[in-house]
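quick one
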Amino acid sequence: MQITGDNLSTVEMTKRFGGVTAVNGATVTFQHGKVNGLIGPNGSGKTTFFNCVTGMIKPDSGVVTYRGRTIMGKPPHTIARAGIGRSFQLCRIFPRMTVLENLLVAVRTTRLSALMSGSRNPAETERARGWLRRVGIDHLEHTEARNLSYGQQKLLELAGVLMGDPETIMLDEPAGGVNPALIGRIATLVRELNAEGKTFIGTAHGLVDSWG
Ligand code: ADP
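structure w/ adenosine-5'-diphosphate:
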C-alpha cells in the first residue's frame, strides 16, 4: 500500500494478547483534516488499536505512519509531540485536583520544560482558562474534578488534550456514558475544532445520532 500525504495510516497492524487476537491485520487510513470514525462492538479491538497507534502498547507486527513517517515503536511522548493527542474510554483525570489544576498538570506531562519549572506559568494558566471556556466548564475552575458529572469530566479531559495543541485528536468512546445534552456539546466542539483544522478519530460501539 502506498503511504501518501498527511494521513494517519496503519498497514497490517496486529496485536495479540496470549490467544486473543485483539487487532487482526488492520489496514486503515484516516483522512487528515476530517472527522473519522472507528465503529465496532465492545471487545472488537478499538481501544487496543488506539493504544497501538499512540505508542502505549507495541503491536506485534505491521506499520503505523503519520505525515509520511513511521511512528510505530516510538514512545507515547514522541507520538504526542508528532501531533497526536488522545482521550481514554475511562476518563483519565486527577479526581482530587481542581479543574484548572488538572489542565496545568495535563500540559506538564506533555512538555518537559514546564514539568521542570515547578511554579505556575501565568500564560499557561490563561491558556487553560481559555480551553475551559471553550469546552464550557470555566465556571467549575475551582471545583475538584471528582465532583464533576461524567460528561463534564469528559469535557475536562478533552480540554487537557487540547492543552497539548495536537493536530490530530483520537477520542476513545467520547459519547460513552455521557448524557445527551453533553454529547451534543462534545459533538459541536468536534465540528468547530475540525473547521479550525483539527483532525479527529473517534470510536463508538454503535452509531451516535448527534455526530451526524
Ligand atoms: P474495544 O475497545 O473495541 O472494546 P478492546 O481493544 O478493549 O476492544 O479489546 C479487544 C480484545 O482484546 C478483548 O477481547 C479484550 O478482552 C482483549 N484485551 C484488551 N486488552 C487486553 C490486555 N491488556 N490483556 C489481555 N487481553 C486484552
